[in-house]
Amino acid sequence: MSGLMLKLAPGERFFINGTLLENGDKPGRIRVPGPDVMVLRCRDALKPSEVNTPVKQVYYAIQLLITRDLEEADTLPAVHRACEDLKNAFEPANPELIPLLQEMIRRGNYYSALCYMKQIIELEAQLLGQDSSGALAA
Fold it and tell me: Which of 36, 43, 104, 128 sits a CA distance of 20 to 30 A from 64?
C-alpha cells in the first residue's frame, strides 16, 4: 500500500484538507492513500510569532495552504518567488536543496515540503547564527 501513514498520539490534533481533527484517547494510525490529500500535524505548525525568517515565511505560507486559510492561486506565485530568492541564498553550498523543495511544492506535496523544510530551517538558523526557534545562538 502506498500513501502517507500518520502515527498519532492520544489526543493529537491534525488537519486533513483544511478540517481540524483530533485523535481519540489511544494511539492511532491513519493511512492517507492519495497525494491529493493535504495533511498538517498541529505539532508541526508554526505560530505567527515564530515566523521570523525567510524560510519560515515559506513554511508558514504552505501551512496556511494546507489549512485552507490561503488560496493556492493567490499564494503560490509568492511562494515560488520566495523559493527563487532562497535558491540564490543557499545555492553556493547546497545547489539541490531548494530545487527539491520547489518540485514538492509544484506537485502539491505540501506535507512532504514541510517535513523537508525542517532541515532547511536548521541550515538557515546556522547561517544566521540562531537556534532554529530564531533566537540568537550564544
Answer: 128
Q: Are residues 69 and 114 in the same domain?
A: yes
Residues 20 and 71 in one domain: no
pLDDT at 51 over 70: yes
Whether residue 138 is predicted with pLDDT greater than 70 in this model: the reply is no
pTM: 0.86
32 and 53 assigned to the same domain: no
Same domain, 77 and 18: no
CA of 25: how far to CAs of 2, 11, 22, 29, 31, in Å? 27, 6, 9, 12, 18
Four-residue CA torsion sign, 19, 111, 114, 118: positive
